[in-house]
Write a structure and sequence with these properties.
Structural class: alpha+beta
Strand content: 15-25%
Number of domains: 3
Strand order of the largest sheet: 2-1-5-4-3
Mean pLDDT: 82
Shape: elongated
Largest sheet: 5 strands, antiparallel
Length: about 500
């Protein structure tokens, strides 16, 4: 059976025409204005962006999701997000007008400045249900305004600091612009503007790479710089100057060049360097005095301990032959103590503790002397000590420091031997693949857990075994003495397996 559908669909037909007509008019309006339009349904969180909105940002319509959260996270500049969120919140909660200038990320041109504004619709309870707004590209106006602000900043800085000049270099041809003050600072007669290479060569040779790198990073990476460098003046003298450089940009966001200021800081900089030199000298002398005091304390304590031990052996020994042997050892140790005192006295008299100098030191002689100093402890522990100087036997080192280093490393190996096994210490020289001279002291003693000890190993007054005689000075002194001579010290150790200290000269 046929049915007449005309009346049934007539109202719908007329409504569709009206809707289409309104939509077409709205589309024509949107295209007619220079702004991108956005429409946000706050209740459903659905959003619509006009074609021009997309085009303004360099995208095809629908290429990215039209969503407020997506815009906040991926289009808006991160530094501008708090500004927008606060402005939207004030508008929706307090109906404060929403209009802000922000940076939005163009698909190909980077961040550009836009003005965005909007108006929300509120229900009878004052609750926002919808918000409509626009974005307008204001990049040219904004960058022009910022450029003017930068020039004003430069003028203000010049006026505030005095004796300061302004300069500017453009990317590409690096064409310079110098203010008259720049020539005065350089001691030059104002003439043709120098190119970048010429300007760099006005600095002392060791500072040329610094300013060259700073300029290149500014042009390539947009990095600011603030450096103190020395100029070579026409009369051969040098002058300290402070150079501040900041990149400036095209409207496209690309780096257009660098501009900045240069200031004569020769007087305050010279005074500062002299003050630092004096502080460093006093600090160095103080450190040497402390180091020397620790050497005296530590080395003399080793001698005293050995003497005390030998006297104790003599008191307990009944065999005349053994007493005679121990007495001979006591005399030898006493002579070693006298020699150590003489050496320390020479350090005070000849160097006045202000300069430790390197001389040729025979490591075998130092090692033999160490065995004499420690012979009481060696006898008491029964530890076996061997040496091998086949790789080399002489080094350039301070003699007192050399004696202290070897004594500390060997005495530690003896002190921290493992009484549960036959103990040994092996001291030997070797040469690395790179040709560096190394001295290693290896033992099979108690060892250490370096993972737990870490940087504390060479700290002052740090001890890691329950030894009543330990004071935590030996390794601290050794590290400082080695490093003051330009060397380094390394350690390998495992609990119950022993330790190896290596000094690289």
């Amino acid at each position: 059976m046929a049915m007449d559908m005309t009346n049934s669909f007539s109202p719908t037909y007329h409504l569709d025409l009206k809707t289409v007509e309104n939509a077409e008019r709205f589309a024509l309006f949107v295209e007619a204005v220079a702004a991108g339009i956005w429409d946000w349904d706050i209740e459903t969180d659905e959003e619509w962006w006009s074609d021009r909105f997309y085009q303004t940002l360099g995208y095809a319509p629908g290429e990215i999701k039209a969503n407020y959260r997506n815009w906040l996270s991926n289009i808006l500049h991160p530094e501008d997000r708090p500004l927008v969120e606060d402005a939207v919140r004030q508008h929706l909660q307090n109906q404060v007008p929403y209009r802000v200038e922000v940076r939005q990320k163009h698909k190909t041109l980077g961040y550009r400045w836009f003005e965005t504004q909007g108006q929300a619709k509120f229900d009878s309870d004052g609750k926002p249900t919808r918000m409509v707004g626009s974005i307008i590209d204001v990049h040219s106006r904004k960058t022009g305004q910022m450029l003017q602000e930068k020039y004003e900043f430069l003028l203000e800085e010049m006026s505030a600091m005095g004796n300061i000049g302004a300069w500017e270099y453009h990317a590409g041809d690096l064409s310079p612009r110098w203010s008259p003050q720049i020539y005065a600072i350089h001691g030059l007669v104002e003439a043709e503007q120098p190119d970048l290479t010429t300007a760099v060569n006005y600095y002392i040779p060791e500072h040329r790479p610094i300013i060259q790198e700073a300029v290149e990073r500014g042009l390539n990476e947009g990095t600011d710089y603030d450096v103190d460098l020395q100029l070579m003046m026409p009369d051969g003298k040098t002058k300290w100057v402070r150079i501040i450089g900041k990149p400036f940009y095209h409207t496209t966001g690309a780096i257009a060049g660098i501009r900045g200021v240069i200031m004569d800081v020769n007087t305050p900089k010279t005074m500062e360097l002299e003050r630092l030199r004096t502080i460093n000298l006093l600090s160095s002398q103080n450190n040497r005095l402390q180091n020397f005091a620790h050497i005296v304390s530590h080395n003399l304590r080793s001698h005293a301990s050995n003497l005390q031990m030998l006297i104790s052996f003599i008191d307990q020994e009944k065999d005349p032959g053994q007493v005679q042997l121990l007495t001979k050892m006591l005399r030898t140790t006493s002579s070693a103590l006298t020699e150590t005192l003489d050496n320390l006295g020479e350090v005070i008299k000849m160097q006045n503790l202000t300069n430790v100098k390197k001389t040729q030191v025979n490591l075998k002689d130092v090692f033999d002397k160490t065995l004499i100093i420690l012979q009481g402890s060696i006898e008491a522990t029964g530890i076996k000590i061997a040496s091998d100087f086949a790789a080399f036997s002489t080094i350039d080192f301070d003699p007192v420091y050399a004696e202290s280093v070897v004594l500390n490393l060997v005495s530690n190996a003896v002190k921290y031997h493992d009484p549960s096994k036959t103990s040994w210490v092996n001291l030997y020289t070797h040469i690395s693949d790179e040709g560096r001279l190394g001295l290693s002291v290896q033992d099979n003693g108690l060892g250490m857990d370096l993972d737990n000890i870490g940087d504390r190993l060479f700290g002052m007054y740090k001890t890691f075994h329950n030894n009543a005689d330990a004071r935590g000075l030996g390794l601290f002194l050794t590290k400082n003495q080695v490093e003051s001579m330009g060397g380094i010290i390394e350690v390998q150790s495992r609990p119950s397996y022993g330790t190896t200290f290596t000094v690289w000269f």
